[in-house]
Amino acid sequence: MEEEARAIKKGSRVCLTGAGGFVASWLVKLLLSHGYHVHATVRDPCDKKNSHLKKLENAMENLQLFKADLLDYDSILAAAAGCEGVFHVASPVPTTKVPNPEVELISPAVTGTQNVLKACSTLRVKRVVVVSSGAAVILNPHWPKGKVMDEECWSDPEHCRMTENWYCLSKTLAEADTFKYAKENDLDVVTVCPSMVLGPIMQPTLNASTLFLINILKGLRESKENSLYHTVDVRDVADALLLVYEKPEASGRYICASHPIKIRELIDTLRSIYPNYNYPNNLTEVDYGHLVSSEKLKKLGWKCRPLKETLVDSVESYKEAGLLNN
Ligand SMILES: NC(=O)c1ccc[n+]([C@@H]2O[C@H](COP(=O)([O-])OP(=O)(O)OC[C@H]3O[C@@H](n4cnc5c(N)ncnc54)[C@H](OP(=O)(O)O)[C@@H]3O)[C@@H](O)[C@H]2O)c1
């Protein structure tokens, strides 16, 4: 395909899947503020859990909601029709153990992504941005100890299966299939792999990573391990998704992770700002966990905000939503 044909027009018509979710809501807001006309898919446009989208600035003129399920190819095709770009964000992110991972996680992630990609090929979409995850990067027992993980590192599907890490498996298989499909069908696809996404919530429902922080504030976290996490602000993830969409030179996968932090340090930081929550105590040390690098994304021009800002804005938004007692 000619380079010129691939050129992205800023402010054109784009489609975004799973628009009512945590990450996607911020991306819808960002796209609308940049003058894009957004075809946003939700499973139920009448459900009040999606009503926050209609209140966004420029939504009246530039936001159209489409009813679509990832497993219903025709619904995806209809939503993406007329769009230059597609942001595929939707994927199940469980908050508890899932009884039937094949049906509840793997099929919507893998078949769902294939449906989106097929629709994009059919419609000759110029660029597709697929939201993968750090979960598709970090579960790799063969990666050399101490070596920082970059985009070359992939979670090992066998290891995910053996350890019953079904969410990691769903994201790894979906992302690997994405690049296979893109190559075979000459489709311009870029993936972004965010780490643990925190930040203020816009949507009325509780997504998994928001619940992670709320459980820390409430002392409800089940694991007592002092594990290593990489956090990233939801607004910085939205910026990264738009950046890789708009920059013609963007290609391949991009890790999107800003702050490596162990749970104890995260608790200490929160306690220094909010001393009165019921934080977990007596954490046990663990010596696993790798650092990951977002250098590739930074070279493209990505910047991220300080962790303290993310934590304060998160907690204040939970308080405003009545999710914390004080
Ligand atoms: N939050 C994180 O820490 C994090 C980190 C790395 C990557 N990610 C990725 O970021 C994306 C968004 O995650 P999130 O944290 O924003 O989670 P979320 O708020 O739970 O959003 C997930 C979205 O996927 C939609 N969805 C699930 N199954 C679907 C299906 N069969 N058909 C259509 N839509 C479906 C959900 O729609 P309903 O509302 O109808 O259920 C929801 O809008 C996911 O791809 C996730 O893997 C998230």
TrEMBL record:
InterPro entries in the record: Epimerase_deHydtase, NAD(P)-bd_dom_sf, NAD(P)_dehydrat-like
Task: Give the NAD-dependent epimerase/dehydratase domain ranges.
Answer: 14-251
- State the Gene Ontology terms under molecular function: oxidoreductase activity, acting on the CH-OH group of donors, NAD or NADP as acceptor
Q: What keywords would UniProt list here? A: Oxidoreductase
Keyword field contains S-adenosyl-L-methionine: no
Looking up SUPFAM superfamilies in the UniProt record yields:
NAD(P)-binding Rossmann-fold domains
Q: Name one Pfam family in it.
A: Epimerase
- Entries under PANTHER family matching the protein: NAD DEPENDENT EPIMERASE/DEHYDRATASE, NAD-DEPENDENT EPIMERASE_DEHYDRATASE DOMAIN-CONTAINING PROTEIN
Q: By what name is this protein known?
A: Cinnamoyl-CoA reductase 1-like
Species of provenance = Dioscorea cayennensis subsp. rotundata (White Guinea yam)
